Amino acid sequence: MVKKGIDWVAVGALILAMMVWASSFIALKSAIGPIGPMNVIFFRMALASVSFMFFIKKFKKISFTKRDIKFIALMTFFEPCLYFIFEAHALKNTSAAQAGMITSMMPIITAIGAGFFLKEAITRKLMIGSFLAVVGAVWLSVSSESTDQATNPLLGNTLELLAMICGAGYTIAIRHLSARFSPLFLTAIQSFMGTIFFLPFALWEYNTTTMHVSTSAILWVVYLGIFVTMFGYGMFNFALSRIEASKAAVYTNLIPVFTIILAFIILGEKFGFMEIVASCIIFSGVIISQMPGWKRKIKQRA
């Protein structure tokens, strides 16, 4: 249901979701080292799935069409499946702060995806903003030096960008599904499908790598599974049931700000001068892409 004017309930839900998602970069970065990316994601999904078991009776009453099943499959394929594979491996190679900065490109990617798949107009300002954001992302990756927090920033930031493409596909799919299904059900489906999908990857990782399980790593996984997955995605999916996907995607611009602050406080990560400049270019591109006013639009090809 689309509201006229500002839907402050949806705005509040989105801000809370962005704060939680920003913290997920810190949690993932902290847990992946000791446990491994696939096991972290699997147990995150499994914990959330156990929590949703209390609603199984309610979910059994829901009916589906073939079209619904296709969109649900598309939603879960983009996120959590591909999204978390890219993001988990991204955070093995780049810092939480840099990964968070790359997320500022998601609104642009979502708008471009809506233009191609939903036939929405692609404006000149969107193209200019997209170009600047891509230049900034490339500069951020190339200018960053290898550190303990970012062993291979170019690879890590590229993987994070791929994760954002998946996130955009997820946003478009779930916007369609939210007209028929509750945020609770959609979040639960993500968790159930994610658990099944990541189980073989987790088993393979468990048998081929050495893990160093610690209390802090376990607590981070519990935080990811219970709080980030249930609360964060629940709030985002709830907001998407009230406002358009393109508007909701804009709020992901808050994630880099929250992530940088949290990464500095919790992980002690810092941005160098060139990284700050590159980040400013990314933000400039995002702002230009969202600016109102330039009415001339580029015609879509038939």
Features:
2 strands, two-stranded antiparallel sheet, single chain, 302 residues, mainly alpha, 13 helices
Characterization of this structure:
- This protein is mostly helical.
- The chain has one domain.
- The chain has 13 helices and two strands; from the N terminus they run ααααααβαααααααβ.
- It has helices at residues 8-35, 37-52, 56-59, 66-93, 96-102, 106-117, 124-143, 153-177, 183-208, 215-240, 245-250, 254-267, 273-290, and strands at residues 122-123, 297-298.
- Strands 1-2 form a two-stranded antiparallel ribbon.
Brief overview:
This protein has 302 residues and is an all-alpha fold. Helices cover 76% and strands 1% of the residues.
Map the helices and strands:
Elements: H1 8-35, H2 37-52, H3 56-59, H4 66-93, H5 96-102, H6 106-117, E1 122-123, H7 124-143, H8 153-177, H9 183-208, H10 215-240, H11 245-250, H12 254-267, H13 273-290, E2 297-298
Antiparallel strand pairs: 1-2
Overall mean pLDDT? 81
SSE order: HHHHHHEHHHHHHHE
Rg is 19 Å
How would you write the strand order of the largest sheet? 1-2
Annotation, overall tally of beta strands: 2
How would you describe the shape? globular
The low-pLDDT segments are 293-302
- Proportion in helices: over 70%
Class inferred from helices and paired strands: mainly alpha
Largest sheet: 2 strands, antiparallel
Number of H/I helices: 13
Q: How much β-strand is present in the residues? A: under 5%
Please give the alpha-carbon distance between the first and last residues: 30 Å
Regarding quaternary structure, what we see is single chain
Number of domains: 1
